[in-house]
Amino acid sequence: MKRVLIVDDSRVARRMLKNMLETSGYEVVAEAINGKEGFELYKKLSPDVVTMDITMPELNGLEALAQIREFDPDAKVIVISAAGQDEKQKEALGLGAFKFITKPYENEDILNAIKEC
Ligand SMILES: [Mg+2]
Questions:
Q1: What distance in angstroms lies between residue 72's CA and the mean position of ligand 1's atoms?
Q2: What's the CA-to-centroid distance between 103 and ligand 1, angstroms?
Q3: Rounded to the nearest whole angstrom, what is the distance from the C-alpha of residue 52 to the centroid of ligand 1?
Q4: What is the pLDDT of residue 86?
Q5: Cβ atoms within 10 A of the Cβ of 22, count?
Q6: Phi-psi category of 25—alpha, beta or left, where left has phi over 0 and alpha has psi -120 to 50?
Q7: Torsion angles phi and psi, residue 24, rounded to 5
Q8: Are the C-beta atoms of residues 16 and 6 closer than 8 Å to each other?
Q9: Residue 14 maps to a domain
Q10: Residue numbers of the domain that contains 41
Q11: Is residue 83 over pLDDT 80?
């Protein structure tokens, strides 16, 4: 069973993701409210997959993605962010994001991405 770390500053977004992932049989090992906490929890828990929001205080999702990938070049990070951000998408994939999914997302998009990880 894959262990997932959720990184998002929105409590509602975290709850929706968590419910959806747990319903689908995944273990959510932790939730982080910004990129800084996300990186710390990644190092501590080494989850199989990370879902990463971009716009967050302290450390944004792209910065956190870069830190995580530097720490662990095999890290699987799925970036979930608002649509219409082509530049951000390019940047995320350039930094080694496994997948870039736009909000509002279909549950299947995320579940399929995690399956592929
Ligand atoms: Mg956000």
A1: 24
A2: 11
A3: 9
A4: 86
A5: 12
A6: left
A7: -90, 10
A8: no
A9: yes
A10: 3-112
A11: no
| Overall number of domains in the chain | 1
**CATH code of the domain in which 66 resides:** 3.40.50.2300
CA of residue 81 to ligand 1 center, whole Å: 8
Residue-averaged pLDDT of the chain: 96
Q: How far is the CA of 10 from the centre of ligand 1 (A)?
A: 6
Query: Distance, CA 88 to ligand 1 centroid (Å)?
Result: 14
Tell me, in angstroms, the distance from the centre of ligand 1 to residue 71's CA: 23
pTM beyond cutoff 0.85: yes
DSSP reduced 3-state for 39: helix
User: How far away, in angstroms, is 92 Cα from ligand 1 center?
Assistant: 15
